[in-house]
Amino acid sequence: MPLMESLRPLRSTPDNHQALIVRPISGALGAEISDINLAKCANSIDQIKAAFLKYHVLVFREQTLNPIEIKNFAKYFGPLETHPYIKGLDEHPEVAPIIKEANEKINFGGGWHTDMSFLSCPPLGSLLYAIDTPEFGGDTLFANQHAAYESLSDYMKEFVGQLKGLHSAASQYGLNGDSEKRSEARKSMSLGISEKAHAQVSHPVVRTHPESGLRALYVNRPFTERLEGLRSSESNALLSFLWSHCEEPRFTCRVRWEPGTVTLWDNRIVQHYALNDYDGRRREMRRVTIEGDRPI
Ligand SMILES: [Fe+2]
């Protein structure tokens, strides 16, 4: 089915008889849902879940949520994960503050990636809630990895469909990794550094979404270290092609933040990129992460 055909705006009527309006934000993925309070959305959760599977990235505006309400909304999708390397709030360890102060140069998540693919069961999804945002800048890009897979030739689909990638957190949270090297430039984030981050896990390069059955590429720059069974030169060349392919603008949407914006994304089928284009201005978010399955 052509991608655009499945992305028409829809209006559905949830149990509480309030219309749920879902507006796509690009041709590739993402939709904005308006007129809903996520602290009181039990009657609409089936429609929200359907939209989540269809659009992969959902944006909600003008929310006012305390940490418990953030967690309660995310729990509709599954149990919450405590990030192994980011310190959460004291009373809510599953809620991680993501902060860049005006005088800091380095942001968190500033490159294309899939959250925590270094785990044997990486997260189903992540949620960000904006508390303080720059007047402009600091947008987040998302890329549809199913669309990226579908646009490959049949020969390439068959080849990469047989491959597995080795993932680890070493380049980010390992010894001499990004967190250690940039700790001074990113003081507001409390990021752990550990030898354990060097442990590798193997995931298929093409994963099948456990709910929708859609196939998606599952390799990303910071965490996929090499492709199993290939020579280093072959692995490097193919990963380099796949990374660039996965990030093409035609597969993306862009979310602009304002205080009160919530964005929820499906980590099993999208990559994302936090833009660092707001030097001199502050940005503060809250993040929760939802546990996921072992990729198949
Ligand atoms: Fe991320």
Report on the architecture of this protein.
It is a single chain. The chain has a single domain (4-290), classed as Double-stranded beta-helix. It has helices at residues 45-55, 67-75, 145-150, 154-160, 170-173, 178-181, 232-246; strands at 10-12, 20-24, 31-34, 57-60, 80-81, 96-100, 125-132, 140-144, 164-167, 201-204, 206-208, 215-217, 224-227, 252-255, 262-266, 270-274, 283-290. The radius of gyration is 19 Å and the shape is globular. It is built from seven helices and 17 strands. The chain starts with 9 loop residues before the first strand and ends in a 6-residue tail after the last strand. Helices cover 19% and strands 26% of the residues. Strands 1, 2, 3, 4, 5, 6, 7, 15 and 17 form a nine-stranded mixed β-sheet that branches. The protein is α+β, with helices and mostly antiparallel strands and 296 residues long. The model is unreliable at 1-8 and 12-16 (pLDDT under 50). It binds fe (ii) ion. The site of fe (ii) ion has 4 residues, from loops.
Chemical compounds bound to the protein: fe (ii) ion
The secondary-structure class comes to: alpha+beta
CATH architecture: 4-Layer Sandwich
Q: Rg to the nearest angstrom? A: 19 Å
**Approximately what portion of the residues adopt beta-strand conformation?**
25-35%
The major β-sheet equals: 9 strands, mixed
Mean pLDDT over all positions: 91
CATH topology: Double-stranded beta-helix
Instruction: Determine the number of helices (DSSP H or I, runs of at least 4 residues).
Output: 7
What distance separates the N and C termini? Answer: 23 Å
Overall structural domain count: 1
Oligomerization category of the chains in this entry: single chain
Q: Provide the low-confidence segments as ranges.
A: 1-8, 12-16
